[in-house]
Amino acid sequence: MAEPLSSDEAAEMTRTGDLWLFRGPSAADHAIRVVTNSPVNHVGMAVVLEDLPPLMWHAELGHSLLDVWSGTHHRGVQLHDLRGAVATWMERYHQSAWLRQLHAEVTPKMENGLLTEIARKDGTPFPATLALAGRWARGRIRRPADAEASYCAEVVAGAYQAMGLLADNRPVNWYDAGRFWSGDHLELLDGARLGEEIAVLGVVPEPNTPSQQQR
Amino acid sequence: MKKRSFWKIAGLAGVVGVAATGVAVVRSERRRSAYTPDEVRNRLHQRMAAIEASADAQPGVGLPAAQPEAASRVRRLARKSLQLVRRG
User: Fold this and answer.
1) N or C: which end of chain A has fewer CB within 10 A?
2) Residue numbers in B near A133 (CB within 8 A)
3) Pick from B23, B35, B75: which is nearest to A53 by CB?
4) What digits encode the pLDDT tens for the residues A197-214?
5) Spatial CB neighbours of A198, under 8 Å, sequence gap ≥ 6
6) Domain ranges within chain A, ordered by starting residue
7) Is A126 in contact with A132 (CB distance < 8 Å)?
C-alpha cells in the first residue's frame, strides 16, 4: 500500500512540520551518509501557512533559489518555494526525495514560534571559519558538503524546538540529517509523531553526470 | 526492533537505502492563492510584525505559566553563549 507520490502531489499534501529527506548519488553525499550513519544526506522542513504556497525551510550551499523571507539569493539558511526547492534537489542535484508527514496539530502559537525562528535564523551563513574549525575538531565536519549535511539538520531541529515539538535538552548541533530518518528514534513531545518515508517521484537521475553537486 | 533501527545500531545505515513504507495520510484541503514571491514575503513579514506587536502589547500575559519557559530560555541562552565561547 506504500504508493509513491508525484512531487506535485507531495507538495500539495505537505503541511507545516513535515520533513523532506534527500539522498544524493555523489561521492560527497555517500561519504556524509557513512559518517553520519544514515541513508539520507539532507533534510528540510515544510512551512505551509494560511493560503500561501508551500515553503521549504532548510540550509543549503546553493544560492540559485530566491529566499522568500529576505527577498535575496544567498547560501546558508533559507526559506524557499517548496516546489522550487524540491525540483532543484531532485533534478539539479539528482537526489531522491522522501516525505515524512508530521502527525500533530500545528497551532497558530506553534506557527508564530516557527516564524520567529525563521526571522531570527534566515540568512545565517554556514558557520564561519573558526566555528567550522571547532566543529571539525569535534569530528563533525570534513568538507563543505559535510557542513551542509550537519547544518541542515540543526536548522530543522531548531524549527522543531521553536514549535515545541522537540525538547531543547540537546543542542541543535547534536542533530544530523540521519536523526530525522525513521530508522532513528526521534522523541517528539505531546504525542506528536512522524510518519514513515513516502517516496516522492522525480525524474530518473542520469548516471555519472559531471555537473552533480555544482551549486 | 525495526530492521531500519538495526542498521542504525550496527553503524551501517549509511550504506543501506531508504525503505519507503509510509502511507500518505490525506489532509484537509487548503485554500490556496497565487502569490508572487514579493507578496509571499510581504505576508510573512506582516504576520511577523503582528507577532511582535502582540508580544509588546501584552507583556504580562500568561506570566505564571510562562515561568518554566523563561527558565528554559535562560538555560538555552547560557548554552548558546557557551557554544559561542567554544566556537571562538
Assistant:
1) N
2) 88
3) B35
4) 999 998 554 555 554 455
5) A2, A4, A5, A10, A98, A99, A100, A101, B20, B22, B23, B24
6) 5-201
7) yes
Q: In angstroms, rounded to a whole number, what is the distance separating the alpha carbons of residues A73 and A78?
A: 9
Q: What is the DSSP-derived secondary structure letter of residue A76?
A: E
DSSP structural state of residue B78: H
Superfamily of chain region A5-201: endopeptidase domain like (from Nostoc punctiforme) (3.90.1720.10)
The alpha carbon of residue B23 and the mean position of all alpha carbons in its chain are separated, in whole angstroms, by 24
Instruction: Convert the pLDDT of each residue in A130-148 to its tens digit.
Output: 455 555 555 555 555 667 7
Give the three cell numbers for residue B69. Answer: 519557559
Name the grid cell of A111: 506557527
Q: How many CB atoms are closer than 10 A to CB A48?
A: 22
Minimal-distance CA residue of chain B relative to A177: B14
Least Cα distance to A98 among A160, A7, A204 occurs for: A7
Considering only CB atoms, A171 lies closest to which of B2, B41, B79, namely B79
Which residues, other chains included, contact A150 with Cβ-Cβ below 8 Å and sequence gap of 6+? A36, A135, A140, A141, A173, A176
pTM summary value: 0.81
Instruction: Name the nearest CA neighbour of A59 among A20, A18, A112.
Output: A20
What is the DSSP pairing of strand A42-47 with strand A76-81? unpaired
Going by pLDDT thresholds of 50, 70 and 90, the confidence category of residue B66 is: very low
Those residues with Cβ within 8 angstroms of residue B15's Cβ, 6 or more apart along the chain or in another chain: A33, A34
Residues in Cβ contact with A50 at an 8 Å cutoff, skipping those fewer than 6 apart: B43, B47
The pLDDT score that the predictor gives to residue B75 is 62
Q: Give strand pairing partners of A57.
A: A45, A79
Q: Which of residues 3-42 of B touch A (CB under 8 A)?
A: 4-5, 7-8, 11-27, 30-33, 35, 37-38, 40-41
